[in-house]
Amino acid sequence: MVARRIPAHISQMRRSEVVIIGAGFAGLEVAKALGRAGIATTLVDRSNHHLFQPLLYQVATAALSAVDVAEPIRKILRDYKSVRVVFGEASRVDLSRKQVELSNGQAIEFRYLVLASGATHGYFGRDEWGRWAPGLKTMEDARKIRSRLLLTFERAEQTDDPMEQERLLTIAIIGGGPTGVEMAGAIAELCRFTLARDFRSIAPEAAKIMLVEAGPRLLSGFSPEASTYARTRLERLGVSVSLGQAVDHVDARSISIAGTEMPVGLVVWAAGVSASPLARQLGETDKAGRIAVNQLLQVSGCGDVFAIGDVATFLDENQRALPGLAQVAKQQGIHLGRGLSSLILAGEPLRPFQYRSRGNTAIVGRHAAVFELGSFKIRGWSAWLSWAIIHVYLLVGFQNRLFVSLRWLWRYLTYERGARLIAGDFMDSDVGSPTGPTNEVSSLHELRVAEQREDDAPTKKLGR
Q1: Is a pLDDT exceeding 80 seen at residue 248?
Q2: I need a labelling partner for 333 at 20 to 30 A (CA). Which of 168, 283, 420, 442 fits?
Q3: Are 288 and 271 in contact (CB under 8 A)?
């Protein structure tokens, strides 16, 4: 029998003109631009999918399924023949050898490196809180929060202890930025409009939702008027807003705010982020782990290395750091991708990056949102509609846009949420309660199949 010859590019890593670490908004845009130019590019990511993070909170609160906000990286880039996708984790950047080392021991040489590895949760030096207060950055995070959220109600339904019921039905969101505000509003609506019809021994609509912010107001990146509006709308939904007091302890069954302990059934972290640790290998970073870049998006002292998106600190013309928004990452990716293409193919020098804000928006609840662009400010239904249109447009793939639009319409008309599934791999001791009877889905594949089946229902009904 003749042994099959393995192509060299599969058996060993080859050199690329450009290596991109991270397939978020920034990394994907660089890869697309380089792919259109036919430049040999390698994109490395530890996930096989691109995740639309702005809608991840809706997966965590059972409004959307995982498949609605994710698209396979290879599918997105399959038309760009010069772009190679590597499913793996970059563990080290060796600048002297100009190569990226992967956790599996392989290495990829580069001429130019683009670090777009994003950020993860930041607990201000209290990383042990992460076990009890999950953040929301990955699909696994969303599934974990959704499972723990639904489990608290299931366990409250089974207990006869009023004090334990009250604890389980107390949910704390730490952090009053857009993510925290959106999570608080979504959880409150889930409790009051959806779960309220599903239980017999408890009243989910009476659940206590707390939003804790250490600063003086919510949505600090918005105007004071928007902050006041957000607080008013949340309180109308029954959310208890705590301002000016920091959380100083988190464990399995309680949190402490300014020294006062409060029993809770679930904690969600939305207070801070920390950039990918790869940034620290390239030079000095700030408190959030982000590395400074110049106007060309180059890392200081490394002319062939670039950092974009949440992993980088870029100062605008007013010497203020750009916020960690999807639109910032996307614009930087487009700019750098075009610039590198011109540099490599025609020797044209790179041009300074200029950020053009498309406005800031945050959803506060059902048909309520805030949108601000300079002096232009809108709130309420019109802001919510603008938010929905923008987010559907930014989703990758026409199929995703169509399904998300139909499911949002179904949810709006019926108050139903289809993806109310508890993942079996996020059970047991994670919630700080004994594990009860389970019929949960036990694998990611089964979860995706089950989610798809359940979410197909509203789509089919709307299509009749």
Answers
A1: yes
A2: 283
A3: no
